[in-house]
């Protein structure tokens, strides 16, 4: 489980694009970005499917 290095919260949103990846903390009084987070293993195999349009 991911833990925010700033506030210790465990609720985060994984964000990635071609330049940046990491977890965005969802704690309302934090909201910081942890660029050291890695993609969860179950999402790292193959390309993630895109959500339906
Ligand atoms: Zn946080």
How many β strands by DSSP? Answer: 3
Oligomer: single chain
Main β-sheet description: 3 strands, antiparallel
**SSE topology string:** EEEH
| Distinct helical segment count | 1
Strand content: 15-25%
The coarse overall form would be globular
Bound molecules: zinc ion
- Poorly predicted ranges: none
Radius of gyration, CA atoms, in whole angstroms: 12 Å
Give the termini separation: 29 Å
Quick tags:
single chain; 53 residues; mainly beta; 8% helix; 23% strand; binds zinc ion
Short précis:
This protein has 53 residues and is mainly beta. It has one helix at residues 41-44; strands at 12-16, 21-25, 33-34.
Account of the protein in words:
The protein has 53 residues and is mainly β. The protein has a domain of 37 residues. It contains one helix and three strands; from the N terminus they run E-E-E-H. It has a three-stranded antiparallel beta sheet, with no helix packed on it. The mean pLDDT is 84. Zinc ion binds next to loops.
Task: Produce the secondary structure layout.
Blueprint: E1 12-16, E2 21-25, E3 33-34, H1 41-44
Antiparallel strand pairs: 1-2, 2-3
The structure holds zinc ion (ZN).
């Amino acid at each position: 489980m991911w833990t925010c290095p700033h506030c210790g919260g465990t609720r985060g949103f994984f964000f990635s694009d071609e330049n940046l990846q990491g977890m965005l903390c969802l704690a309302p009084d934090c909201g910081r970005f942890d660029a050291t987070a890695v993609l969860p293993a179950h999402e790292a195999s193959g390309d993630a499917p895109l959500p339906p349009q």
